[in-house]
Amino acid sequence: MKKRLIAASLTTALAAAAVGGCTGGSENAAVKEAPVKAPENELFIFTAWPAFYVKEDIFDKQVGQFLKKKFPDVQFKHVAWDNPGRRYEDLIAAGTIPDIIFDEVRRNSYRQVGRFKMEYDVTELIKKYNFDTGKINPSDMQRSIAASEGKLYSLPFNNNEWVLIYNKDIFDKFGEEYPKDGMTWDEAYDKTKRLTRQDGDITYKGFQMNPAHYMKFNQLGESGLDPNEDKASLTSGNWVKIVNNIRRFYDIPGNQLVKTNQFSKGNVAMIIDSLENATRLINENKNINFDISSVPVFPEAPKAKFQPNTNGMFITNQSTKKDLAFQVIAYLLSPEYQIELAKQGVIPTLADPAVQQAFAKDLAEWRGKRVESLFYLTSAKPTLRKPGLTFIDTNTDMVWNLISKESKDSQTALRMTEDAMNKTIREAQELVKQGGVNPYQ
Fold first, then answer.
1. Whose CA is closest to 352, among 365, 370, 337, 369?
2. 3-state class (DSSP) for residue 344
3. C-alpha span between 211 and 387 (Å, rounded)
4. What pLDDT is attached to residue 174?
5. Does residue 372 lie in a domain region?
6. 0.85 cut: is pTM over it?
7. Which member of 168, 243, 272, 366 lies 3.0 to 4.6 Å from 410 by CB, making a disulfide possible if both were Cys?
8. pLDDT tens digit string along 142-165?
9. 363 in any annotated domain
10. To the nearest whole number, what is the mean pLDDT of the chain?
11. Backbone phi and psi for residue 273, each to the nearest 5 degrees, phi listed first
């Protein structure tokens, strides 16, 4: 495993790219596993998620320029995940461990940060600097807690929120009322039936969403893993309700599942996607007359949107500048900064009305849109699990494949997936027992 991590086949150029040219040593020294000592006033930030920080101009616009202004005596070095060449393995091989990592919390706390032994509990730094975690959206905060084995390895940076966007021209064409905040899934289903139709050569689809994402981040707060035991948990009544709800949309004749990318072609009335993807789609076709609404809700959870898809900030265990790193993170969670981030169309994690009201103020494509709908509902809270249990990713892709490709009923698809996940958990435990790593996270 160690040989794999240090990647003996890495070229000198690859290692240099991984550190953005900051090694300062000879070519041979650049690929050694020994740490590369950075200047005392340098803070190394590595961004895996949000993915758009691979573009340095976006990182500088949304993060870098504010850090330079707030911390004028600190030199910030930024490297983004950009496969191949700038992955966790590459940084380790080059001996350059980041001080701060931005990454997806739910899965990558285990799959990346934990795998490479970079996790660090920030609880004492929170106490030392009297940082108020109560000002953070509780669901985002719980996402970090749930992925921290009873500690706290990250603080939330942003939420790649799920948003419903709709094509107003399709609604107008067929005389259908626009979606309203608080719309139920039953109401969304009825609209989908009325908007799915053939008109000349064009097939209009009423609604699309990735079913696996819908299940994984479901609004009823259901987890695919048992909170107290090392086993899967997919056969509850709530899980059946969740699955039956989404599958009926794709049983509507003409509304077969396609990728949400079809929205930019102008023949899909409503989609739910991450804010990052939704923004990309509306910019692909600027002629689409769109608006947004809160996502549909279940009657038993009328104020709950999807569980948060949180990107967090981790201080690495190897960092020698943990205090400075925490002060930077605390600033990035201040109203002063989060207002500026929100203006650029990034969903903040600060539970502050002023921050929410600033959302997308600097973006022309969102001007005049119902952006307040993004904050109409409250994120469902992820389930907390007992520390020490095996984490694997909930295989909602398998659930949907059994339904869509093998015509299984919902109960059977869930039971078969639960059995498969339990087998995966046992395999992961055995691999770890033998000194390997869990590859199923």
1. 337
2. coil
3. 29
4. 96
5. no
6. yes
7. 243
8. 999 999 999 999 999 999 989 999
9. no
10. 89
11. -150, 175
Backbone φ and ψ of 102, nearest 5°: -100, 125
Tell me the pLDDT tens digit for each residue of 47-92. 999 989 999 999 999 999 999 999 999 999 999 998 667 899 888 8
* Residues 166-187 pLDDT 10s: 999 999 999 999 999 999 999 9
Could you tell me where the beta strands, DSSP code E, fall in 256-309? 268-274, 290-293, 304-305
Work out the number of other CB atoms within 10 angstroms of the CB of residue 277. Answer: 19
- Length of the chain in terms of residues written: 441
Would you state the torsion angle of the CA atoms of residues 360, 361, 367, 372, taken in this order, to the nearest 10 degrees? Answer: 60
How far is it, in rounded angstroms, from Cα 288 to Cα 244?
Answer: 31
∠ Cα 269 243 407 (to 5°): 95
Give residue 354's pLDDT: 94
d(CA 146, CA 223): 11
Q: Whole-angstrom Cα distance, residue 304 to residue 182?
A: 9
A 10 A CB-CB count for 66 gives: 17
Count of the separate structural domains present in the chain:
2
Which of 252-256, 300-304, 360-364 has the lowest average pLDDT?
Answer: 360-364
Residue with tokens 């500048």: 321
Q: And the tokens for 127?
A: 């106490």
Residue 148 belongs to a domain: yes
Here the tokens at position 136 are 């953070």
**Cα distance between residue 192 and residue 187, in whole Å:** 9
Q: Is the pLDDT of residue 265 over 60?
A: yes
Domain range enclosing 258: 162-307+386-433
The distance in angstroms from the start CA to the end CA of the chain is: 17
Q: What is the CATH number of the domain that holds 146?
A: 3.40.190.10
